[in-house]
Amino acid sequence: MEAPVFIEGLPGIGQVGKLVAEYMIEEIGAELVAEIHSVYFPPQVLVDEQGIARLLDNEVYLFRGETNLLFLVGDAQSASGEGHYRMAGTYLDIAERFAVRRLYTLGGYGVGHFVDDPQVFAAVNREELKQEVQDAGGSFSSEGGMGIVGTSGLLLGMGKSRGMEGICLMGETSGYLVDPLSAKKLLSVLCRLLHIEVDPTRLSDRAREMEQFVQGLKEESEREYERRKSSEDLVYIG
Amino acid sequence: MEAPVFIEGLPGIGQVGKLVAEYMIEEIGAELVAEIHSVYFPPQVLVDEQGIARLLDNEVYLFRGETNLLFLVGDAQSASGEGHYRMAGTYLDIAERFAVRRLYTLGGYGVGHFVDDPQVFAAVNREELKQEVQDAGGSFSSEGGMGIVGTSGLLLGMGKSRGMEGICLMGETSGYLVDPLSAKKLLSVLCRLLHIEVDPTRLSDRAREMEQFVQGLKEESEREYERRKSSEDLVYIG
Amino acid sequence: MEAPVFIEGLPGIGQVGKLVAEYMIEEIGAELVAEIHSVYFPPQVLVDEQGIARLLDNEVYLFRGETNLLFLVGDAQSASGEGHYRMAGTYLDIAERFAVRRLYTLGGYGVGHFVDDPQVFAAVNREELKQEVQDAGGSFSSEGGMGIVGTSGLLLGMGKSRGMEGICLMGETSGYLVDPLSAKKLLSVLCRLLHIEVDPTRLSDRAREMEQFVQGLKEESEREYERRKSSEDLVYIG
Amino acid sequence: MEAPVFIEGLPGIGQVGKLVAEYMIEEIGAELVAEIHSVYFPPQVLVDEQGIARLLDNEVYLFRGETNLLFLVGDAQSASGEGHYRMAGTYLDIAERFAVRRLYTLGGYGVGHFVDDPQVFAAVNREELKQEVQDAGGSFSSEGGMGIVGTSGLLLGMGKSRGMEGICLMGETSGYLVDPLSAKKLLSVLCRLLHIEVDPTRLSDRAREMEQFVQGLKEESEREYERRKSSEDLVYIG
Predict the structure, then answer these.
(1) What is the three-class DSSP state of C42?
(2) CA–CA distance, A118 with C44 (Å, rounded to integer)
(3) CB neighbours of D86 closer than 8 A, spacing ≥ 6?
(4) Which domains does chain B have, with CATH numbers?
């Protein structure tokens, strides 16, 4: 088997990375190859709508195609700093077993306000990767001294010493809500980088639903404001 | 010896699980078979009314009867996330020595307000266990994405990979006070599941005392309110 | 050598235990036999008035006399829960090397207000020790469910499983200031228990100085209050 | 090779130690001999203005000259207490490989207000080092009981038990901003101690820029104050 490209999409800001990676797995039909539990995850189980409890669980999926893809997705990042380093080491051990040479790590870039046309920011672990990312629509922030906290960052840094190329893509997002619009933009940049096509229709649908939900929230809050204003008027008139 | 059923009732919300498990041990007369100390417990000793200090201590009790029962009760859950996982592993090691195949984990389900007729909510680690739980009076919440934090949850999740069936029962409770009423309801569901009978009289007594205590608090707070109102009236009249 | 009695006086509430143990070491002239450093101590050095830095350091002193005494004193308790357990284990390892069979652990019992005639409260790890403690002037609180956090507590609890008798003495203290008066009371109870005499003069001196210091604080705060009142009067008169 | 003198300048108050050590490395042209990564560092990567991500990284540089110098500089101190001790042990292991017998640890001494002519405070791990430090312009505070938290302190304390002389130099600084003026003063004391010369011109330039920046902040805040005052006057006039 040709060495797969590694794609990490664990929970994080706006769930952008998780949305993209899990969407790809569903759309292209990748196969579960490993489950990861850890004492570094938060000490709890999740219970689904059926009442079935299960451990927090990160998963590795393999897709065999023109380009082979190895996905890391799941429920949790580590709850401690030391755990973050140790888990990133474990993820890279798995990547090495598959002879991975390139890593994509996906996340959100929180800006604190709603964004109509989110950008996709990038960081790389080798200079020669930049052109490729820019050609695919990724931007490099000119602010220096930025940090990337957690798995997405550590995989780039620790992957480098194992000889792996690393590209982190971060969808611009408010940071307040799950953000399928940002995920859709990120997906399109990633697909250009991978030279594959993934139909974004269902993600567009979710983005539209989320937009309507946000719109609804805004209108509700305006109506509430008007209600209060008129009832205060009444009081004052009285 | 027939493999016992494992019943966990460590401290938690409303002390519901602890109340039920310790009540059963007293009522049916189980025998202490192990004491557990851990560096993961809070670093302190407890001093009783006699001035005798002892380490925080979880205990395992065995009851031999028609159905053999192995109880885990005690003073403490772990103080760290990693400790929670490691202690749950230790508890399952003990369960394995007794060839346990079914786990019941008991706890409270905090709702933030007083409840007159508390329900018993449940989660299981295998779908085929649901019917049995429902027949015994347990309910499954239809809200997904719920989490069960701590030992009760981890035993279900980690027990599954060791081939053990797991049922978590959670008595609905305010979360403000020790709740023997919720414990009594949970006990009745558990007894139906175990096909055993445990006389709930003393637990009913405690529930009635607690009800009177809460009632007393309410009346005291109302009298206080009236006192203040009338003294303010005096001031204004003056 | 006859097995020594172990006396722990590490930093804690009102520094009561530390005051007593270090005072005894100076008065009776015990000899340094061990220094203890630990990754569980806070990560810093102390610098004395001469500008000389040294690691945080707990120390073991041995006194050979009618009754042999082994003291544990020093700069620090552990900064983490797990560290508390592990360090207590280390202290008991040292005690075992000296074949210690009785432990005294000394501390303060914070009550949140100044106390003119502080009591000495006690806890023991075996019921048969109580009479002896009461005869020497120690009191047992009748409130149950009390906890003793940190080394003083853990040595009692963990010492028991190693076959050591343990008595914790706690001098009643406000908890706001270093309290040599409380220490003096504790010292007298401890000396009766040990059947030794230690001249308390210098501790009495320190208690008197501290009393004058507190008295000074009170008067200063009253003068300040009067000053403010009269200057406000002036403003209002003006 | 003659045993080098060890100079630590990791991040800390006012970045004073880091400024001095990194400035010396650049000015005298030391050579990178080791990179240090650790699970005890914060779990993140840094991204530079080019978009290149790299792990947090401490570095050891060697300068071979009349006096050989071994520098420890970098991005991070440990994020946990235990990590501080373990990393300090690692740094000393490295120093031992180079047969280091003297350590200089550099830092800031925060005073909470701006200082026009910052002093250089010192602490040592052996009394006989004091005269030398004072001759070079370092001061010893007469306040006892001071603590030095983190690597600068632990290297002195832990180095002592490995037979290494240790001198900690701390430039007086507000603690609010990066402080090249304080660094310049510290550099001059250190150079006298090392009997070497390092041209401080570029550090003086940075100090002047920082002074102008602070001056600008002050003037801006005064102008803002005046603007507000006059607009309030207008309102009141109106």
Answers:
(1) coil
(2) 46
(3) C39, D40, D78
(4) 5-199 (3.40.50.10900)
What amino acid occupies position A12? Answer: G
* Alpha carbon distance B91, A41 (integer Å): 19
Write out residues 46-85 of D within 8 Å (CB-CB) of A: 46-56, 79-80, 83
In this complex, which of A142, A145, A160 lies closest to D46 when CB atoms are compared? A145
Pairwise CA distance, residues A8 & A6, whole Å:
7
Q: Are A19 and A10 in contact (CB under 8 A)?
A: no
Separation between Cα atoms, residue C111 and residue C152, nearest integer Å: 18
- Residues of D with Cβ-Cβ distance to A130 under 8 angstroms: 50-51
Q: What is the pTM of this model?
A: 0.90
The amino acid that residue C191 corresponds to is C
pLDDT surpassing 80 at residue A145: no
pLDDT of residue D49: 92
Report yes or no: C150 at the B interface, CB cutoff 8 Å. Answer: yes
pLDDT digits over B29-65, tens only?
999 999 999 999 999 999 999 999 999 999 999 999 9
Touch between chain D and chain B: 3 or more Cβ pairs under 8 Å: no
Tell me how crowded residue B117 is: count the other CB atoms within 10 A of its CB.
7
Residues in chain A: 238
Q: CB–CB of B124 and A51 under 8 A?
A: yes
Q: Can you give the pLDDT at residue A238?
A: 36
Mean pLDDT across A66-77: 97
CA distance C87 to C94: 11
Lowest mean pLDDT among A29-38, A84-93, C225-234: C225-234
**Of A166-180, C15-29, C140-154, D218-232, where does mean pLDDT reach its minimum?**
D218-232
Beta bridge partners of B45: B55, C148
CA atoms within 13 A on the CB side of A41: 20
The span from the CA of D19 to the CA of D71, in Å, is: 12
In the prediction, which pLDDT does B233 show?
59
Q: What is the pLDDT of residue C94?
A: 98
Q: Tell me the average pLDDT across B216-227.
A: 84
Which one-letter amino acid corresponds to residue A55?
L
pLDDT of residue C220: 86
- Supply the ipTM of this predicted assembly: 0.89
Separation CA B43–CA C157 (nearest Å) = 10
Shortest CA gap D188–chain C (Å): 20
**C55 phi/psi in degrees, rounded to 5:** -60, 150
**pLDDT value for B144:** 67
Q: Using one digit for the tens of pLDDT, what is the confidence trace for B163-201? A: 999 999 999 999 999 999 999 999 999 999 999 999 999
Chain centre distance of CA B114: 17
Under an 8 A CB cutoff, do C40 and D140 touch? no
Which chain A residues have a beta carbon less than 8 Å from that of B124? Answer: 51-53
Rounded CA separation D197/D181 (Å): 18
**d(C-alpha B139, C-alpha B123), whole Å:** 9
Q: Which residue of B has its CA nearest to A54?
A: B157
By CB atoms closer than 10 A (0-12, 13-18, 19+), residue D172 is: buried
